[in-house]
């Protein structure tokens, strides 16, 4: 698959953040940006307007709320149901209604993970140690 070169202009503070992330991960800025764009592209194409709006609004939330979001996940009931559907898919197959339910749960899971990642990134920008999202403490 061919690659297409793209030039973008970003504010200095954003470039510094990308550069720091690249340095920490021992990758080039180009590699970090490429991975970020690849990860976001499907959301831009198929993400719901509600998801796009939620991601944009996160920057306006306070730290405590971002920490709650960073720790959010599917409910135990949703996890168990998704697991049941996966096992049934492998053993006997799913009915059309079950396939629809599985796809809805998977979409919700993906969106939840994307919102979590964005919340963690914002907390990191606000100088919080996000290595353990169960904790809530600023870097000193």
Please describe the structure with a list of short key phrases separated by commas or semicolons:
140 residues, mainly alpha, globular
H/E series, N to C?
HHHHHH
Low-pLDDT windows of residues: none
**Helix amount, in percent?**
55-70%
Give Rg in angstroms: 18 Å
What fraction of residues sit in β-strands?
A: under 5%
Mean model confidence by pLDDT: 80
Net shape: globular
N→C terminal distance: 45 Å
Q: Number of helical segments?
A: 6
Number of strands: 0
Described by its quaternary structure, the protein is single chain
Which structural category do the helix and sheet elements fall into? mainly alpha
Largest sheet: none
Describe the structure.
It is a single chain. With 140 residues, this protein is mainly α. The chain has a domain at 1-46. The chain is 67% helix and 0% strand. It has six helices and no strands. It is globular. The model has no long low-confidence stretch (mean pLDDT 80).
Summary of the model, kept short:
With 140 residues, this protein is an all-alpha fold. It has helices at residues 12-24, 29-46, 49-57, 63-70, 76-91, 96-125. It contains six helices and no strands.
């Amino acid at each position: 698959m061919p690659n297409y070169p793209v030039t973008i202009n970003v504010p200095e503070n954003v470039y510094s953040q990308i550069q720091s992330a690249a340095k920490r991960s021992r990758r080039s800025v180009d590699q970090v940006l490429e991975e970020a764009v690849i990860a976001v592209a499907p959301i831009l194409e198929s993400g719901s307007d509600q998801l796009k709006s939620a991601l944009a609004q996160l920057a306006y939330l306070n730290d405590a709320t971002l920490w709650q979001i960073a720790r959010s996940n599917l409910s135990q009931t949703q996890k168990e149901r998704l697991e049941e559907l996966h096992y049934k898919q492998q053993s006997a197959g799913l009915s059309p209604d079950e396939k629809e339910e599985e796809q809805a749960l998977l979409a919700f899971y993906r969106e939840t993970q994307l919102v979590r990642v964005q919340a963690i990134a914002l907390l990191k920008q606000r100088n919080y140690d996000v290595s353990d999202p169960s904790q809530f403490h600023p870097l000193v």
